[in-house]
Amino acid sequence: MALEIIESCTNCCACEPLCPSKAIFEAKPHFLIDANKCTECAGDFEVPQCAAICPIEGAILNEDGVALNPPGSLTGIPLAA
Amino acid sequence: MQLPVINIATAEPPKGGCSAGSCGSTDDQMGHLPDHIRDKVKNHPCYSEEAHHYFARMHVAVAPACNIQCNYCNRKYDCSNESRPGVVSEVLKPEQAVKKVLAVAATIPQMTVLGIAGPGDALANPARTFETFRKLSEQAPDIKLCVSTNGLALPENVEEMSSYNIDHVTITINCVDPDVGAQIYPWIFWNNKRIKGREAAEILIAQQQKGLEMLVAKGILVKVNSVLIPGVNDKHLEEVSKIVKAKGAFLHNVMPLISEAEHGTYYGLTGQRGPTHDELQALQDACAGDMNMMRHCRQCRADAVGLLGEDRGAEFTIDKIEEMDIDYAEAMKMRAEVHAAINEEMESKRAAKTVGRASPRLVALKGDLRPARPVLMAVATKGGGVINEHFGHASEFLIYEASGEGVRFIGHRRTIPYCEGGDTCGDGESALDVTIRELAGCEAVLCSKVGYEPWGPLEAAGIQPNGEHAMEPIEDAVLAVYEEMRAAGKLEAKAVEQQKVA
Hints:
The structure holds two protein chains of two kinds. Chain A contains one helix and four strands; from the N terminus they run βββαβ.
C-alpha cells in the first residue's frame, strides 16, 4: 500500500513537510515517495496528505496506477475532447 | 502651496467625508500618510510612487508550495520570458537566497527591499521563508523585508513575522463575499483536507480579514492587492476597498487580471478577459475616494531583481552568485552613501517643486476659465522622475493625466521596445502597432528622442510624438505640453467634438 509521484510533479515541495511517515523525499527530476515508508496516511489522517495539497492533476497515483486527483478535478479546466 | 501635481487623494473629492489621515495636498502619493508610516515607505519602490524611480527591489523565490488554487494561476509555470506574478526560473534554498540577496545588494546599492512572494505562497512555506528572513535580518540589517501572501496561513504566523521585524505585508484580497470567492478559488488546503467551493472561500476570507486585523494591531504595515476580474469581482472591489481601509490597510493596489490563453490558467483557457485600461482606471478612481490607491505596480515575477519595470535577474543566477565573493560590511558602507545621496536628491526635487511651482503657469491656468478637458499623455523614462528614455527603447510608458487641476500619475502600460521588436511579433502585429494599441487614449507621447519612422504612424493614431522635453521633470513637461495644447486651441476643439457626439 503506497502512493507514487510521477513526472508531472513540478517540485513545488508542498507535500514533503506534510507526510506523517517522512516517505517523501526530494530527488531529480522530481520528488519521490519511498514505497516502504508510505502508509497512504492510514491511522494519521482521513485522506493522504500529499494528494490533498498537490496542485497538479494526475501527479499522484495509487497502487493501481489511478490518479488520486484526476484531470479536471482541481482546476476545473474543461478536458480536451 | 503645492498645487500643480496632485495626488489621487486630492484629485477626487472623498465620498464619505474627509478623515485627517487621508486628505492632503502634496504631490507625493504618500504625502498625506502619518509621519511614522511615511518614514517606513519613503524609500520603498513598491509603496511610494516617488521612490520607485530611485530605489530597487528584489524577490527571492524560496516559497514554491501553495495552500490554495486561484483561477488566474497555473502551478506548472516556470519560464524565463514571462513577466508576471507566480513565475520564476529557479527556486532557491534559503541559504542560496541569502547569498543572492547579498550579491544583489552589493552590486545594486539602490536595492532597499527584499520580498518573498512565492512562486507559491510565502506562508505556505514557513520554514523556508522564515529561515531566509532570520538570516537576512542578521547579515543585512539595512534591507527591508516584505512578505506577500494569500492570507490563509496568516493568523498563525503573525507572531513569528513580527519577531523578524518584517514591517510590510501584502495580502491578496479579491473578495469579501464567499459567493464571489467561489468563482475565483477552486480549492484551499485547510486542516489537512482539500476544501472546495463556497466553503473554501468562506474560510479563506475569514483568515484574510483576521490576519489583516492582527497585523494592524501589531503595527505592521499592510497593503492589499486585488486582481480585477471583469464580471467576477469588478462591482465588488469598491466594497473590498472600503472594508480593508476601515480595518487599517494603508494602501490598495487593484491590478488587472492577466489571462492569456497560452499561460494555461483556468481563466486563460475559459476565455475570461482582463480589464481594459479604462476599466482599471475607472475602478481605481472609484476606490480612491475611500482609500490610497497604488498606480505604479508592475506585477513583477516572484524572482524579479532591480528597479520596478526592469529585471536584472539573469545577472544573478545560482551559478553566477556562487562565484561572487561579497564583503557585505564594506558593501553596507557604500550602500549607506548611495542611499543618503538619493534621499538628498529626492528632498531637493521636492523642495524645488514647492518653491518653483508658485509659477506663472498656474496663474495662466486659473486665468483661463474655459472648461479644461483632461488629457492622457504617455512618458518614456528610465527613472529619476525625468524624461530620459528614447521612444524606441522603452519597454513601458508611464501614463499621466493633465487637467485644469494639474497633473496626476495614472498608471503604466507595457509594450515591446520599437527598436528591438523586429518586424513582427505574435500574430503579425509589429512592435510599433503594439505600442500604438497600448497607448490608446493618449494624445501625446513624451520621450527624450523619437525617430522619424514611428512619427507618422503615431500622429496618424492621434498620439503626438514629442522629444522637446528631454531630461525635464515629468510633471513639468506634461504640464507644459498641456498648456501648449490649450494655447493651440486643441483642448477646446476636442471638447466641442465630444459634445456633438454626446
